[in-house]
């Protein structure tokens, strides 16, 4: 069975990606990152997701992106915005270089495990405008992976797979329903409380709720 590293945040998108990787026949090695995020309930959700969706192994790596501040997700002094997404404006919930750091960690893990792919839940349709979720960014990182690793030099280049990148949130929710995912175990909120209850007002909550509504499915999210 081929192996893949799957980045699992604990949210709706990454849960769907893990389920898709398993459906495609991959032995999934789930990787989460404790990067100093304020919404730490997502880490417990990531454990639940990895266990429920059949990951062979789940590891959580600790780094400290909060040391640099610059984001509402890592700095309690910066308010999480609740006014919706503004087109063309990168919101303060963007964490500088976060996805580059995450993918670099996944790349190292993939080399160690002999994985042939990294699955990543980037989305460029219903998202908050982050520059490191765009298809051109992912293509550039895949090219870097081929150049920067022993696997790439030896002709065993890793593929970077972003299966939901062109899906709307409603399409992602429908795909998850088809795969039998219990989205009640996931946490997407940028300011979830310690028990995982969502605020219902941040960008992540708005996009998630709109996705369930557009999909015509019940939203199982627990709101504070």
Instruction: Give a short account of the largest sheet.
Output: 5 strands, parallel
Mean pLDDT: 94
Secondary-structure element string: EHEHEHEHHEHH
Helical segment count = 7
Q: Could you characterize what this model shows?
A:
This protein has 7 helices and 5 strands; from the N terminus they run βαβαβαβααβαα. The relative contact order is 0.18. 37% of the residues lie in helices and 11% in strands. The model has no long low-confidence stretch (mean pLDDT 94). The radius of gyration is 17 Å and the shape is globular. Strands 3-2-1-4-5 form a 5-stranded parallel sheet, sandwiched between helices. With 224 residues, the chain is an alpha/beta fold.
Tell me briefly what this model is.
With 224 residues, this protein is of the alpha/beta class.
């Amino acid at each position: 069975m081929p192996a893949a590293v799957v980045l699992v945040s604990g949210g709706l998108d990454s849960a769907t990606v893990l389920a898709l990787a398993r459906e495609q026949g991959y032995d999934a090695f789930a990787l989460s990152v404790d990067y100093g995020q304020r919404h730490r309930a997502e880490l417990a959700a990531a454990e639940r997701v990895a266990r429920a969706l059949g990951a062979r192994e789940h590891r959580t790596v600790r780094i400290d992106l909060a040391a640099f501040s610059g984001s509402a997700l890592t700095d309690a002094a910066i308010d999480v915005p609740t006014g919706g997404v503004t087109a063309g404006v990168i919101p303060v919930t963007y964490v500088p270089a976060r996805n580059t750091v995450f993918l670099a960690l996944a790349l190292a893990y993939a080399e160690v495990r002999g994985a042939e792919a990294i699955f990543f839940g980037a989305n460029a349709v219903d998202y908050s405008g982050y520059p490191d979720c765009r298809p051109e960014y992912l293509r550039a990182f895949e090219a870097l992976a081929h150049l920067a690793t022993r696997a790439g030099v030896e002709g065993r280049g890793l593929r970077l797979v972003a299966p939901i990148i062109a899906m709307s949130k409603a399409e992602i929710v429908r795909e998850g329903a088809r795969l039998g995912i219990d989205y009640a175990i996931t946490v997407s909120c940028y300011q979830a409380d310690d028990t995982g209850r969502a605020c219902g007002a941040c960008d992540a909550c708005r996009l998630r709720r709109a996705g369930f509504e557009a999909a015509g499915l019940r939203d199982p999210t627990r709101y504070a």
